[in-house]
Amino acid sequence: MNILQVNSSARTEGSHSTALAARLVERLREARPDARLVVRDLSRRPHPALDEAALQALFTPEDARTPEQARRVAMDDALIEEIQGADVVVLAVPMYNFGVPAALKNWIDAISRARVTFRYTEHGPEGLLTGKKVYVVLTRGGQYRDTPADTQVPYLRMVLAFLGMTDVEFIYAEGLALGAEAEREAIAAARARIDAITEPLAV
């Protein structure tokens, strides 16, 4: 089993989303000691945004690209290879201003490539990243689950499904900014949920 962990917090240290995602990966590896892990930490290795230069590089035929364009496309290629090779994907996603971190959006833009990770057919778009289990660890300062303010879950569910990833489990740690006791309870609840999800895998 190949596991891909994607950390999108802006924090290099002390991130709740990263810590909970690492706990989930730890439990998965306890169940499958032979699992191979790749960690893509977007705070330590930020991926560039999709800008005009990147678009020009992507739409230039491979044999006509400049060395700079080839390097830019290769950066996206590396992320695509990671997601293509993963059986399990663990996304660590804090909420920033009611949305996903810009770093995660850059990652999503990089892995979303027509004719590679999705394609258009006469029956509509078809995702090509199929057969993967995705866990999304969500951390929020307030309480947003199942409210109109939660734009993260609908967006992630939609974009992951567009790419072919429909087996998605969301794990919540909410109320982290509502005081020390609320923070402790939220982290404990998320850890308990992680344990409950992963316990059957050890059987």
UniProtKB/TrEMBL annotation:
Report the co-factor binding details.
Answer: Binds 1 FMN per subunit.
Q: Where is the Flavodoxin-like fold domain?
A: 1-196
Organism field: Caldimonas aquatica
* Nucleotide-binding as UniProt keyword: no
Do you know which Pfam families this protein is assigned to?
Flavodoxin_2 (PF02525)
The identity of this protein, by name, is FMN dependent NADH:quinone oxidoreductase
The catalytic activity of this protein is classed by the Enzyme Commission as 1.6.5.-, 1.7.1.17
Supply the PANTHER family for this chain: FMN-DEPENDENT NADH-AZOREDUCTASE 1, FMN-DEPENDENT NADH:QUINONE OXIDOREDUCTASE
The answer, when asked if Isomerase is one of the entry's keywords, is no
Q: Which cofactor(s) does the record list? A: FMN
Family membership, please give it.
Belongs to the azoreductase type 1 family.
Q: Which Gene3D superfamilies match?
A: 3.40.50.360
Keywords from the named record: Flavoprotein, FMN, NAD, Oxidoreductase
Q: Which reaction does it catalyse?
A: 2 a quinone + NADH + H(+) = 2 a 1,4-benzosemiquinone + NAD(+); N,N-dimethyl-1,4-phenylenediamine + anthranilate + 2 NAD(+) = 2-(4-dimethylaminophenyl)diazenylbenzoate + 2 NADH + 2 H(+)
The highest taxon in the source lineage is Bacteria
